[in-house]
Amino acid sequence: MTSPPDLDLLNITKRFGSHRAVDDVTFSVAPGEFFSILGPSGCGKTTLMRMIAGFEDPTSGDIRIRDKSMIGVPANRRPVNMVFQSLALFPMMSVGENIAYGLTCRGVARAEAEKRANRMLERVGLKGFGDRRVTALSGGQRQRVAIARCLVLEPTLVLLDEPLGALDLKLREHMKIELKQLQATFNTTFAYITHDQSEALVMSDRIAVMNQGRFEQVGSPRELYHNPATPFVASFVGETNRWQGEIASTAGGTVALRLPSGATIMGEGAASQKSALAFVRPEAIALSQDQAALGTLPNRFEGRVAAVLFDGANSSLLVETPGFDEPVRAVLPQAGPLAGIAVGAPIHLGWASQATKVFAA
Amino acid sequence: MRSAQRLTLFLLMAPAVLWLGLLIVLPHVEILILSFSERVAPRVYAFGAGNYLEFFTEPLYWRTFARTAIMSILVTAITLVLAFPIALYIARVARGPTKAMLLLLCLLPFWVSELVRTLGWMMLLRETGVISYLLRMTGLADQPVEMLYNDGAVILGLVYGGLLFMIVPLANALESLEPAVVEAGFDLGGSRWTVLRRIVIPHAMPGIVAGSIIVFMLTVGNFATPVLLGGKNGLWFTEQIYAQFITRFNWPQGAAFGMLLLLLSSTIVWVGLRLTGQSLGTTLRQA
Amino acid sequence: MLTKRAGLKLATAFAALMVAGTAHAAEKLRLLTWADYAPKDIIEQFTKETGIEVEVTLSNNEEMISKLRATQGAGFDLVQPSQDRIAGPQQEFGIYKPLDLSKIKTDQFIGSMLEATKKNTTVDGKVYGVPHIWGTDGLVVNTKAAPNVADYTDLCSDAVAGKASFRAKRPTLIAFAFANGMDPFAAYNDPKAYTEMMEKVGAKLADCKKNVKFFWDGKDQLLNAIRSGEVVAAMAWDTGGWKLNSENPEIKFVAPKSGALGWVDTYAIPAKGRNDDAAYKWINFNMRPEIAAKVAAAAGNFTASNGADKLMQGKLKDQFAESFPKAAIDNIKWYPAVPAGIEEIEGKILDRLKAGS
């Protein structure tokens, strides 16, 4: 990397009383990157974001933006702007005034600010909306105003605090794409926090998975999905089957895990301890009515369809399998011979040992 | 079914309508009629606008009138300036029991009558009163200081009496301001002053107008405070009305003054609403 | 008293009317009077003798008239305005009812005072009032702090600057007229001359306003201020002066050079009084020398009851003697009846006095 990172967090810790909301977090965000922090509610991601924005002071550590420490710099002096969860548009101002607000705060003349605001509205597809009341906008339009209000200031970094949370599903799917496009057009660095793994996976260049104040893993969506570093990441990112058992044997990189319910599964991963956790993605499990079709897969079982969860391309089956105390979940391809399978039908399932991620429990 | 509903509605409305009609509309109509009667001879009255003419030709009356209006506006403005930070603290900073405590503290003076509160101020401010005594004890003054019987004392008393009625609607209005909106104001580069001027105050405007109307009305119609704290210099228009009704037995003149006072407060409220671009409806909701 | 606004007053009067209309289990006398004119023990004795309960409402001249005017003379069975405030309001508002003198034991009154009062309260040949308590308006002076105050005009001297007080009411206008060599009573029936005279007096008082601590309104307010030394000289009632004199001999009631103003409070019956018999009983009961003496002692004033003076305690007599040498008694100016319209003229002068700075 030739240019310095836009955002650098060094050993940031935030304590509320004896509670560590953020515990020794270090990361950096490169210019133009779409960086997400993904975690369940209460994991400390909001606190982290508020520290970057300047609404909270870290207990220890340093926050640097383009190599300048932000410690002691108030929120209104930081080259960082935030899109709030509630959007926090100014209801007492028109759309145009909302966008020009930041400019006028910087001392840009009224006429100039208005001109720039209008240009910005055009770029986000809201041409001619300048005189509307913000209350008269649709959810998606409000979203765009909130982002435009930040972007017009040409900040080093835009922070987004779950801004899609309040939207309905259809609009949310649409806004994911739009946000990503906006970010690409403006080439501004985005730091996005969310508890929704799909939002993070779709939009981000890199994702940090956060749990109990700490980063579990930082990596590209693909890395997180396919090579989770911790059991938490494995279970939090994407759908997965999860089993707990004991290591029976290790040979080379392969471990055999015996489940208390009887089955033994083959997998790969760390096995320093006897007790271990295994994760298998539903789409890694192959289904067939013919055992021979599963060939030489090390994990092969036979079961009965307990439920068909039809969801278009995301459809899956729950398979009641002897040796497992809970049904195994497997993706049901809609373009194959199994598309019409019914509850109660016998079925064979199998997966490779690389598909089983084993972690010490 | 429909007629039964209508009857129920009628019965439910009846107390309000009666109250409105008998205690508010009717007396005002009577006062209005009374204000247009002129005394010709003992027990003989004629219709005429002489009482209103008297107001405009006698400088004494309209000067008192103007003085009352200006002082009331001043009192309202001071009350607003003092109440705003208190309301802001109650609405945005204080939490749980502290908040309830603070509101209670504002309410406390109203557990005693206005007269008692005013007499309390007199005990503090008079020449042989507490403040004068403390000033002498601490050597800040070498002789008794009289702080009563001037406009300052009147304004002090009126502001004190109006504070609660300003704080409550203000705190209500400020409470509904989403914290994120204020943070957004800072985040986008606004200084404290900018956020206050462009976000907090516009948001609180319905509360500001509601509080101001209430305080102005209370002040303009106050009687005891200007009379007691103002003493020989505390002339207030209500005192003129009282004098006409009670000491001069001139009811028609008093009625005319009363109507003029009503007109004055209505006009000023209307102008205030106009200037701030608020409607009476939103304002009343806030109050 | 001050908090009551005109409207409120009307409302209370109406309320009183309605309450009175619904509840009169025991026979009751509704008395509208001054403070101290109906002491508790006297009321108890009256109730024991006659079985009539007495309901007392305290007031002053202007409020008595206003209350009765609001109800056209209803709500009370007996009132006690000053003798000069009966004829005028009666002509204007018709709020009193003529007295039946045959029901009053006239031999209990001091003859000359009864005659004078009857004369002053006669309208169209009918008598509307008989005397009860009398006293004077003069100067209450702290003789140590303000040794040279001898007449009303001395309240305006630099010696008492900022420490003088009087009421913004009609007695003050009358007093300052006399003190400035005019005779307001002689001009009572000539509105033009009276207006001119009052304008002169008003100008004098306006000059004097800078001297005034406050225009006093309630007796206790004034007495407290004199006690504390905030006020050293004031125009006030003799009774207040003597009360303070008993506490502090340096404070004296002084009959002014231009003459103390003599007032007489009366008994009068409102036009719509409902219990005239009880009213007459109360009058006759109160004019008994032993009762009258007790009431006079409570009020600190003198009574129109014949023979009660012999029963009075020594202290008040001595104080009276000190304040009123023979010449001063002769110089007392007794208020004649106030003609209708006079208060209008005075009112405007007083309004200006209060408004001027």
Rg of chain C, Å, rounded? 20 Å
Structural class of chain C: alpha/beta
Tell me roughly what share of residues is in helical segments of chain C.
Answer: 40-55%
- First-residue to last-residue Cα separation of chain B: 37 Å
Q: Could you report the average pLDDT of chain C, rounded to the nearest whole number?
A: 87
Q: What is the chains' assembly state? A: heterotrimer
What is the count of distinct domains of chain B?
A: 1
Q: What would CATH call the homologous superfamily of the largest domain in chain C?
A: Periplasmic binding protein-like II
Profile the largest sheet of chain C: 8 strands, mixed
CATH architecture of the largest domain in chain C: 3-Layer(aba) Sandwich
Count of beta strands of chain C = 15
What is the mean predicted local confidence, pLDDT of chain B? 86
Give the CA-based shape of chain C: globular
CATH class of chain B: Mainly Alpha
CATH homologous superfamily (4th level) name of chain B? MetI-like
What fraction of the residues of chain C are assigned to beta strands by DSSP?
A: 15-25%
User: What is the third-level CATH name, the topology of chain B?
Assistant: MetI-like fold
Strand order of the largest sheet of chain B: 1-2
Low-confidence stretches of chain B: none
Task: Give the count of structural domains of chain C.
Answer: 2
Q: How are helices and strands ordered from N to C of chain B?
A: HEEHHHHHHHHHHHH
Descriptive overview:
- The complex is a heterotrimer of chains A (361), B (287) and C (357).
- Chain A folds into 2 domains: 7-232, 3-Layer(aba) Sandwich (Rossmann fold), CATH 3.40.50; 283-351, Beta Barrel (OB fold (Dihydrolipoamide Acetyltransferase, E2P)).
- Chain A has 8 helices and 20 strands.
- Chain A has helices at 45-53, 95-105, 110-123, 139-151, 169-186, 197-203, 221-226, 231-236, and strands at residues 7-16, 19-29, 34-38, 60-65, 68-69, 80-83, 157-161, 189-194, 206-211, 214-219, 241-251, 254-258, 264-269, 275-280, 286-288, 299-309, 316-320, 328-331, 346-351, 357-360.
- In chain A, the strands form 4 sheets. A 6-stranded mixed sheet of chain A has the order 6-7-8-3-9-10, with helices on both faces.
- The relative contact order of chain A is 0.11.
- Chain B has 287 residues and is mainly α.
- Chain B has a single domain (59-286), classed as Orthogonal Bundle (MetI-like fold), CATH 1.10.3720.
- In chain B, helix 2 (50-57) crosses helix 12 (251-276).
- Chain B starts with a helix and ends with a helix.
- With 357 residues, chain C is an alpha/beta fold.
- Chain C has 2 domains: 6-134 and 263-334, 3-Layer(aba) Sandwich (D-Maltodextrin-Binding Protein, domain 2), CATH 3.40.190; 137-262 and 338-355, 3-Layer(aba) Sandwich (D-Maltodextrin-Binding Protein, domain 2).
- Chain C is built from 14 helices and 15 strands.
- In chain C, strands 7, 8, 9, 10, 11, 12, 14 and 15 form an 8-stranded mixed sheet that branches.
- The two termini of chain C are 25 Å apart.
- The B-C interface holds B 27, 42-43, 58, 60-61, 63-64, 113-115, 126-128, 146, 148-149, 223-224, 227-228, 231-233, 235, 238-251, 254, 258 and C 2-3, 5-7, 9, 62-63, 65-66, 69, 89, 91-94, 162, 168-169, 209, 212-215, 228-230, 340, 343-344, 347-348, 350-352, 354-355, 357.
